[in-house]
Amino acid sequence: MSPVLHFYVRPSGHEGAASGHTRRKLQGKLPELQGIETELCYNVNWTAEALPSAEEMKKLMWLFGCPLLLDDVARESWLLSGSSDLLLEVGPRLNFSTPTSTNIVSVCHAAGLEPVDRVETTRRYRLSVWL
Fold first, then answer.
1. Whole-model pTM?
2. If DSSP codes are grouped into helix, strand and coil, which group holds residue 34?
3. 29: helix, coil or strand?
4. Which SUPFAM superfamilies match (predicted)?
5. What tens digit of pLDDT does each residue of 71-110 get?
């Protein structure tokens, strides 16, 4: 079975504004909501026998990052949940490949990353609530 590699992208400035909008909408239905944070996760199906080399990993991190931000991609989640937090991950069903995945795979192959055969993007939410 091929490993699925996860690349977590720290939210940029415009996503912070979107989180504020989402928080305001949710607080009408969930008054206990204290805050909301988001991140993107690229789930990469890697088909090679070995895990990516340092050079391949560097390419993947570069492809999934923002060219204007340094160190915005990590292998570990940026969202650390506390005891009163709820962590949700929203994305496509895993039984079919999305058009976005097809496009990302084409870019990966053009960059010499042939073992990538599927990349699905999910959005992760950390909801902080008052108990």
1. 0.86
2. strand
3. helix
4. PurS-like
5. 899 999 989 888 888 899 999 988 889 999 999 999 999 9
125 neighbors 90 (Cβ within 8 angstroms) = yes
Cα separation of 62 and 65, whole Å? 5
> Cα–Cα distance between 36 and 125 in angstroms, integer?
7
Q: How far apart are CA 100 and CA 120, in angstroms?
A: 7
DSSP notation for 58-125: HHHHHHHS-TTSSS-EESS-S----TTEEEEEE---TTS--HHHHHHHHHHHHTT-TTEEEEEEEEEE
